[in-house]
Amino acid sequence: MKLKILFGFLLLTVLSCDQRPIAKVVPIDQEGLKQVLVADNEKIKVINFWATWCAPCIDELPYFEKIGASYKNQLDVILISLDEAKSITTAVQPFLENHQIRSKVLLLDDPYAAEWIPLVDHHWDGAIPVTLIISKNKKQFYNKALTYDELEDAINKFL
Question: What is the pTM of this model?
Answer without folding.
Answer: 0.86
